[in-house]
Each structure stands twice: as structure tokens, then as C-alpha cells.
């Protein structure tokens, strides 16, 4: 959706630019002895262009910033959520401290590796990536995600880590809040 907007916007901008080129090209032939009026006009056009750009890119910038893919819950504010999954990557499997959580409440993943670098990617039932972080030995990376629908999610390794990299798969069952134990 936003990609389409960006595409249409760049089409408009490219057209505008082409118009400017065409205008300059079209008026280039006429010679004027006194360039002062022309210069004044150019400055006016430049000032207009500047404000058009500001008015155009200001909202675009705010819009794209609002659309950042980071979960708001990732921010440092607030205590740790009640649902915590410790995840350790091994060549070539995942060890999760639990594999059942409930939807609608934040889950904090604390991710680390027992050997080499891996990638921790959580995929929804449609196999769309919903959250990810790097998995490094000696570090615990935290990522928070609130599952908004129930189902069986998959954890896949996102960084090539050896011959059986593709075998690094785990499942997380996301249930309804009433199923909380
Ligand atoms: Cu672990 Cu790829």
C-alpha cells in the first residue's frame, strides 16, 4: 500500500521535473538583453519550489516515520511483560523455554546462541515474518512482539549457520487469552 503511494508520488515528481526541463528547454531560445527580470522570476520560482518540496516531503517524512516496522512495545519504557520466552539457538535446533503464549499480550523473547550466529525469525501461520532479531553467542537480544491472532507460528533460522541450517525450526502456539494458565 505505502509502496504504491511512494510509486505514485515519484511518478508525479518525475512528471513535474520533466515539465521543468521542458519549460527550460522551451524558453532557452529567447534572448534577453537585461537578465534582471529573468533572474527575479527564477528566484521566485525557486522559492515556490522550495516550499512545495517542504510541504510535500514534510508530511511524507512524518508518514513514513509513523510506519516504521518496530513494535512500539520494543521501547525501553515499562517493565518486562508477563510472557517471556528464552530462546537459545544451537546447530541446528532451537531451545525455547516455553512454546505456548496468548494473543493480545506482549511477549518478550530473550534470544541467544550456544555456538555460532543464527537469525531468529518468527513467522505467522501464513508464513509472513512478524518479528526477528539476530542471535549471537555471548549476547542476549531482546525482541518484544504482541501476537494479534491465534495460531501456530514458526521460528526459522534467518542466517546461514551450516549444513543443516534449514532444519532450525520450532513452533510457538498462540492461544486465546482465556486459555492462559
Ligand atoms: Cu541457524 Cu541458520
What does this structure look like?
The protein is an alpha+beta fold. The protein folds into two domains: 2-63; 82-179, Immunoglobulin-like (Sandwich), CATH 2.60.40. Helices cover 31% and strands 31% of the residues. It contains two helices and nine strands; from the N terminus they run ααβββββββββ. The protein has helices at residues 2-27, 36-66, and strands at 83-90, 93-96, 100-102, 106-113, 118-123, 129-135, 141-146, 151-157, 169-175. The strands form two sheets. It has a five-stranded mixed sheet with strand order 3-9-8-5-6, with no helix packed on it. It has a four-stranded mixed sheet with strand order 2-1-4-7, with no helix packed on it. The longest helix has 31 residues, at 36-66. The mean pLDDT is 88.
Strand line-up in the sheet with most strands = 3-9-8-5-6
Q: Order of SSEs, N→C?
A: HHEEEEEEEEE
Decide which structural class fits the backbone: alpha+beta
Q: What's the CATH class label of the largest domain?
A: Mainly Beta
Shape assignment: elongated
Number of strands: 9
| Distance between the first and last residues' Cα | 39 Å
Estimate nothing, just give the exact number of structural domains.
2
CATH superfamily of the largest domain: Cupredoxins -  blue copper proteins
Summed over residues and divided by their number, the pLDDT gives a mean of 88
